[in-house]
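Each lists chain and fold; for instance:
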Amino acid sequence: MRKLLGRAVGCALYVLSGAVCAAAVPLADLARHVQYDNVKISSDGRYLAATAVVKGKPMLALVDLTKGTGVMMKPREGNQVIDLYWANGHRVLYTEGTKVSGFDRPVPTGEIFAVNGDGTGSELLFGYRAGDTARSTHLKKREPERASAMVIDTLRDDENHVLISVVPWDSGADGAFNEIFALDVRDGGKRKVATAPLRSARFITDHHGVVRFAAGVDSQAHGQVYYREGEGKSWRLLFQGSAENNVPVPLAFNRDDSRVYMACDVPGKAGALCPWDVATQLMQPPVWTNATADISGLVRSLDRQDIEGVQSMPGTPTTEGIVAGSDAMKVISSLSQALPGRSVEIVSSTDDGSKVVALASSDLDPGTFYLWDAATGKASQLLQRAPWVKPEQMASKRPVAFKARDGMSLHGYLSMPPGAEESKHLPTVIYVHGGPFGVRDDWEFDPYVQMLATRGYAVLQVNYRGSGGYGRAFEEAGYREWGGKMQDDVTDATHWAIQQGIAAPDRICIFGGSYGGYAALEGAIKEPDLYRCAIGYVGVYDLPMMFTDGDISDRRAGMSYLRTTLGTDQAELAGRSPLNQLDRLKARVMLIVGGEDERVPPVQGQNLHAALQKRGVAHEWLYKSGEAHGFYVEENITELFEQVTQFLDRSLQGAAAP
C-alpha cells in the first residue's frame, strides 16, 4: 500500500511538472534554475507544498499525500513564488517575488497569499494589492497597504493566525521600526501585538508565539539585541556591540522556553553555541564549539520544539548532536548511511514529528527531497531539484587547506575536470567568491564551478581572510585589506596550486564576481606575471566610488560598514583600485556587467571598459542592460557561460605546456 502511495505521489508530481528525460548536460542546462527549490509538509502530514518551475513558468505545487493528487497554483503574471509556510494542516501561505531593477533575482513584493492544500480558497491576505477583486474573493474587505510583510511565526497553537513583521515602504533608506501583527489566515484581518525597538529587526519568538528577542544593528552598524520578558512587557537592551566587541546572537528557545540558544564567542574557537538562562539571564557554558568552523545551521527536533544538533562546514558539511538520543540526529544518520556522499538536512516536518521532508545534496548534485515516515522508519524519494543534472558527469569538490604567507590557515576547494582527477599541470581558474565579508565558498553544487571544470579546467576556490564561516576573528582579519592581505591570500592559493603540480604556471586565469571581480583585476595587476587572463563579473574597480554610488552608501549603517571594512583613506583606496593601476596590467581581460546593478553600479565596469579602450587594450565585453548584480535570466547565463569558456579557451588552452 505504501509503495503504491509513493508511486501515486510521484506520478502526480511527474504529470504536474511535464517532465521529460534529460540528455547530456550542456551549458544551457547548467544555467537552468532548479525545478523544485522549497518543499514543506503540512503540520498534519496530509499535504506537500513546493515551489516549482514547470515549462519555464514558476508555480506553487500542492500535493495531497493521501490521494496522490495535486494542483498547480500560478503566481501573478511575471511573479514567482519565493517562500511558503503551512499555517495549519490545510492552509498554506506564500510570498511572491518580481523582477526589480538593480537586483539579480526576483525581489519579494511584500505581499502574503494564502490557499488551501487542495487549491481552493485562494486569497491575497496582505499587501499593496489586497482587496483586488481579481484575486481576493472573500466578503470581508481588506485595505491595500504600501508595506512589506514577512512571516515570523506560524503559531502552532492557533491554526487561524500567524505572526508577521511589517515595514512601510516609505520608511526611508535607514529602514523602519518593524510592527508585528497577528494575521488571520482566513480573511487577512490583523491585530497589532508589538513594535520593534530598533530598525529592520529580526525576531525570535518563544513556543507560546510571543516575540521575545529583536536583533539588528544600530546606525554605526554595531550589533544590538533587545529582550522582553513576555507579551506586553517593555523592551530592554540586552547586548550592545562595538568596534571591538561582537554581540551574542539569539537563535532559538529550547522546548520549555527556559533557555535560549545563542551563537556566542569563546576564546580560541571559531564557532560556539551557548545556552542563555531565562531565569538568571546569564550565559551558560557552550554546548558546542569548533576550532575551525562557525555555526551554519541548527538541527531541530522532529516536532520542531527543541534544538538537538549543530551544522557547520569546516570542509564538507558536518552535523553534530548536542542531545543524547536525539530523534532528529537518528534520522539524519540513517539517511546519510543510505545515501553516502550526500549531505542530509531536515527541511520540514509534521507537528508530531511522524513525517519528515529531508534534502540530500552534494557537490555533484543540487539535491533530492525525500519523505521519511516514522511508522516504517524508511524514506521515499519525492522530488529532484534538477533532474537534468547527472552527478556522474560532474566535478567533485575536494576540501583543501594551506597556510598564507603570514601563517594564517586558509581553506578552500579544488575541483578537477571529471576523469582527470589525478592529472597534473592543468589550465586552471582561480575562482574568487564575492562578498567579501561573511560570505564563503562551500561544499555544494555550483553551476559556475561545473561550467569551468566540465570544460577541462581545474578550479580552485579559496576562503580568504574576511570570508564567513570560520569565526569572527577570521572575518575581521580581512577588514581594510582590499588589495592587501585578502589579495595576498588569493595569490598564495595560486602559488599553492602551482607547487602541488595542479596548475600549469603559464595557464592560469583569475575569475570572480562582485568583490571577486575586484580581486580578479587587482590580482592580475598586483601579480602581472602570475595570471594569463582575468575575468571581472559585476566587479568593483574604483574603491572610492563605493562611498558615493551604490545601495550600500544610501544608508547610515551602510556608510559605517564601508568605513569599518574598507577604510577611510581615500588616497590609499584609490591606489588599490584597478582603474588607477592599468600600467601594470599584462593579462587578457574580460568584463561582464549588468546594466541594472544597484549594488555595484554599471559605471564601475563602464569606466574600466572606457579606460582600457583609451589605452588601446583589447578586451572582451559582455553587457546586459536588463541584468543586475549577477545574471538571472537563463538565456543570459547561458551566453555568459559560453563567452567565458570561449575566452578561457583562447587565453589558456593555446598556451604551451610547461
